[in-house]
């Protein structure tokens, strides 16, 4: 494919594809913004619900595109802001004159502009923004801010303080199974204490330990997480001076799912580390040496009598599902609710009628019902079939059942009856004290006030500098 084609035609094809890409994204965002408008009418009473219209639309977007709730929410937020506040910039984007990067910058930098001013700024930016495609991120930001300052000086975005940016994330490694990435921004004093503690733990082994200092510091994170003050030395000597009884200061439980053959060394099938994903067979066997082994028992064919499942059934459901079962959502079961597919007691407490939904999806399934709501059904093997408000149908299979087919063996079918929704059902929905729009306006108000304070301080410093450098003319 690389040896054919006229270069001029290839350039034309590349440019056309770039413009078509922007036009396609614009069409998608327009559809999302229009859906949001429709749902605002359909769910008028939901503005103070915890799972408000924004969450309801994000659920539909997540399912339709098979993406996470976070990504879907970002699209809803961007689409609504674009088509409600910047329709002329949206038209420029739909023609393919600017790309998604520029569009995101414009939306973010104009977020604090007052509603009665944004129309004029939108018109001006629409005439200029296509000239800024070549700019770097910093130059693009500065150029937009100049225009914002001309129209609404208080709306220029205020950079967040370092304290507001503090975070620490632990995520699965993108390339190496069984590994994780740790990173973040800490308070300097906390970071210094953390750094010293890692060094102390890393240096608790003898000089013959084969690991480098970097490797021992990495291992020290695990010891720190378990509440231990030292590492087990790997020198292999029975007379190691660093050998001692190491006791945990805190009880930490890490769950790993694996087949018996993997533990016995007769299979190389990987295991699963809850919250992190696939764990290589060698890592499973290493972890199992000091672990408490507990078999996952298949559930009984008979439903349980109460509303809450027994510990054994709960364990099976956690390992079968592993994540939230709503389409597009991959939140680990540790942060999910157990949901009766048919509300109890119309639906029994049984593996064929229970699955995990994260709290947001659980509330959506429970309260967004009826003609403009969601419906779900569950098959004996744990497959969930959801019907969206639009009639679109989505199927999700249990992640644990995919990785370990023994967990997807169909359990017994159970009888259900048709529930009758009680009057005032929505009164049980957790409520907000303020709407999402009120929260947005309050954030803008606070940031605008901070911008005015910064502008006043800059003007004070400028006047002081002018006064200090002023020399009266000679007479």
TrEMBL record:
InterPro entries: DUF222, HNH_nuc. Residues 17-321 form the DUF222 domain. Residues 449-462 have a biased composition (Basic and acidic residues). Residues 449-475 are annotated as: Disordered. It holds the Pfam family DUF222. CDD domains: HNHc. This is DUF222 domain-containing protein. It comes from the Bacteria.
